[in-house]
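Hey, resending since the last one bounced:
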Amino acid sequence: MLREFTPADAPFLLGWIAGPGELLTWAGPTFNWPLDDRQLQAYVDETAKGARRTWTAADPTTYEPLGHASLRLSGDGTARLGRVLVAPQARGRGIASMMLPEILAHAFGPLGLLSLNLGVYEHNAGALGIYERLGFTTYEVLKDVEHVDGVPWTALQMRLSSKDWR
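The structure tokens again:
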């Protein structure tokens, strides 16, 4: 079940990110480790101002939050899909594969967007596979854009247009 993200969902995100590498994987360099209430409040405020649409995937029986994702709206018919995260206890159960098509349907349906962009680190094979199955294609490779524990990370910039979806 996908529902609008609420401020009450923000504390779950704190418990879902175990370290600086996970934080970077989730949100790029936007936040600083350790993620805290102040940074999450700024994120909630961004959503409240309409610059971002944000969702929580919840268990349909218990309503327990299991996933999170957002669209940062650009105002020109495009948005950036990001901050896709699945609760540690729910990983490997297909939550992102269930959540993301619903978000795409909303983006290309009621929101009327023309295209979506995203960034994913090349080593994040699970996420990359989901994005490719949804139809996203790589349009730019940012080699060694980040370094984590001395290891360079390459970021792939991907795009999906409304006409190529489904």
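The helical segments are 10-16, 20-27, 37-48, 95-108, 125-133.

Sorry for the duplicate.
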